[in-house]
Amino acid sequence: EDQVTQSPEALRLQEGESSSLNCSYTVSGLRGLFWYRQDPGKGPEFLFTLYSAGEEKEKERLKATLTKKESFLHITAPKPEDSATYLCAVQGSSNTGKLIFGQGTTLQVKP
Amino acid sequence: NAGVTQTPKFQVLKTGQSMTLQCAQDMNHNSMYWYRQDPGMGLRLIYYSASEGTTDKGEVPNGYNVSRLNKREFSLRLESAAPSQTSVYFCASRFPSGRGLAKNIQYFGAGTRLSVL
Lengths: 111, 117
Description:
The structure holds 2 protein chains of 2 kinds.
Chain A lengths: L2 E5 L2 E5 L4 E8 L5 E7 L6 E6 L5 E4 L2 E5 L3 E6 L8 E8 L7 E3 L3 E6 L1
Parallel strand pairs in A: 2-11
Antiparallel strand pairs in A: 1-3, 3-8, 4-5, 4-9, 6-7, 7-8, 9-10, 9-11
Chain B lengths: L3 E4 L2 E4 L5 E7 L5 E8 L3 E8 L6 E2 L6 E5 L5 E5 L8 E8 L11 E3 L3 E5 L1
């Protein structure tokens, strides 16, 4: 059964304090791993997609990496505006596009 | 270009009432999805439509029905609402697979917040 587990559930950082969010997954035939950002009261906003182990993507202070068992979202020198819930999802071998989501990590960055 | 639009944004129902959540996308996407989001549970797939004219059950379909009205619109219906259906509902659409860098990405609407009393 496809499964995604994110850790930690919640993370509090001081502005400028770098850290990483973890996404562990089990899936048959990974078609893609997706990171989304969700602000309170809004829908998930796409950040990155990774397709194969060893792949990395960067956007501003965020960097996503992928291995065969997990993905990390590294946040370098975060700012208060980076506060949000970060969601990880995987798409398995089916071509229907169905995503399996983790529970999310809620990040709070204090000034 | 509005992306994915959901209506209504908020709704309160009494147990046993029915309602339809509307979703429309203007990105010419083939596939559309309905999810529900509950605290500590993440997003769970209710129903999806891989292409116009087809619909399939997801992880938690009980108590729901869907209609893919045309390529743009995908509605979710609660025939007899129950308190367990209190949740935030998200609609998403997907860029056709195989189209370069954008393949398989799902884009989400702002959600419908539903309370069933």
